[in-house]
Amino acid sequence: MVIDALDGLGASPQTPESTFVQKKKSVVAKKPTKGSSGRGLRDLTVKVKTARGRRPSSTRWLQRQLNDPYVQAAKKDGYRGRAAYKILELDEKYRFLVPGARVVDLGCAPGGWLQVAVPRVNALGERSGKAVGRVLGVDLQEVEPLAGAEIHQLDFLDEGADTQVMEWLGGQADVVMSDMAAASSGHKQTDHLRIIALCEAAAYFAFDVLAEGGTFVAKVLAGGAEGELQKLLKQRFTKVANVKPPASRSDSSEKFVVATGFKG
Hints:
Blueprint: E1 2-6, H1 17-20, E2 24-28, E3 46-48, H2 56-67, H3 69-77, H4 84-94, E4 102-106, H5 112-120, E5 134-139, E6 150-153, H6 161-169, E7 173-178, H7 188-209, E8 210-221, H8 227-236, E9 237-243, E10 254-262
Parallel strand pairs: 4-5, 4-7, 5-6, 7-8
Antiparallel strand pairs: 1-2, 2-3, 8-10, 9-10
């Protein structure tokens, strides 16, 4: 049995909003076995119908979004994106977002990581008796304001960006984190090299703004060219870990480097 319903999710990067809301989704139901009522047997995997003008990649993206529990959880919990759970899971393990910490989020749009950082570092001072932290986000594009976070449009690669960030922050940072990714070219090795270069740039920025003992967290793509980055980080931090949090999709080569104990 196929059930049609209007799709109310946001548009994919390749599908205009105006046409997207007109698309339909289908839910496929399993047939009940003999002697059973069939309750609870429906396969709730959403199947997306192909539509004229929609690229196959857009259809795959839409189907993945419809069936991703982290996408659904983000909507329920009020996060701006599923990526929020990645930093949540990393912090649960490494505990770098602590009350009083000064945090810089590079490439902070749409703001999901900021949403996690604000309460954890007590940026709003809502946890009585705990130190009050600071959360600063920078991005090339304008980002919707968020209570407890200071957000600026800035290219962190610009000359003097490190000095500007420390002026806004009122001193050095305890955490520099980045979920940035270079624009996809469709060529796996090229994309890998691009994101490694971006991560290295973020690392050098972190070297300039981190306080001794600080933490650097950044996204990378596995692909064989991250050796120099690992070597660089191991020279400047006491411990470097490579982690794929549960919220990171299993079919993605994405992982995160967590470098703790900045040596200065």
